[in-house]
Amino acid sequence: MNIAGHDVRRIRVDPAASADDLARVQALIALDLHYWEHVEAAPLRDDEARYLMDDRPPAVPLAHKHVFIVDDVALLDMLEGYPDETTWFLGLIFLAPSVRNRGLGTKLLEAVCDHARGHGAKALRLAVATQHPDARRLYERLDFRFVRPHRRTIHTGAFVDLDVMERAL
């Protein structure tokens, strides 16, 4: 994936992912501990980066998981061909607090849409936590539409309520 003016690095997600890549992902997501407690309803785990690399439905091949770090301030995690062969799923878009509200999220979402479209996708789907209204407003502004509610069980056994949204590409 290319984003003009930004250093974009694809991270290996297989079991041989480098310790350096895992440390970079872990350090990035640790920049906002409040996010994990607020949105994930649990504190950040010491192995959250490894969990993120492994997280995908059993039917999705490892080769269809794409994780990118952008400028060491943003993280993108997406699944190719999920929940169907013409849809991609954005599992996470994470921006460091220092770069939020400056248009980078919009730029990254547009780049993700372009990337997925370039690989044959017809839609991009995501799920936004219901307690994250700022993210929901951003997605709606970028033409994502509500599909259905979803309740996800996290590793602690707690539930997180989500709104599944989708944008035609």
Layout of helices and strands:
Elements: E1 8-11, H1 19-29, H2 33-39, H3 48-54, E2 65-70, E3 74-79, E4 87-95, H4 104-118, E5 123-129, H5 133-141, E6 145-153, E7 159-168
Parallel strand pairs: 4-5
Antiparallel strand pairs: 1-2, 2-3, 3-4, 5-7, 6-7
Characterization of this structure:
This protein is α+β, with helices and mostly antiparallel strands. It has one domain: Aminopeptidase (3-Layer(aba) Sandwich). 29% of the residues lie in helices and 30% in strands. The protein is built from five helices and seven strands. It has helices at residues 19-29, 33-39, 48-54, 104-118, 133-141, and strands spanning 8-11, 65-70, 74-79, 87-95, 123-129, 145-153, 159-168. A seven-stranded mixed sheet has the order 1-2-3-4-5-7-6, with helices on both faces. β4, α4 and β5 (123-129) form a beta-alpha-beta unit.
State the fourth-level CATH superfamily.
Answer: Gcn5-related N-acetyltransferase (GNAT)
**Which class of secondary structure composition applies to the elements?**
alpha+beta
Give the CATH class: Alpha Beta
Question: What would the average pLDDT be, to the nearest integer?
Answer: 92
Count of helical regions: 5
Q: Rg to the nearest angstrom?
A: 15 Å
Main sheet attributes: strand count, strand direction, barrel closure: 7 strands, mixed
CATH architect. name? 3-Layer(aba) Sandwich
Helix content: 25-40%
Enter the CATH topology name: Aminopeptidase
Give the strand content.
25-35%
**Domains (count):** 1
Strand order of the largest sheet: 1-2-3-4-5-7-6
Poorly predicted regions are: none
The overall strand count is: 7
Shape: globular
| N- to C-terminal distance | 16 Å
Order of helices and strands: EHHHEEEHEHEE
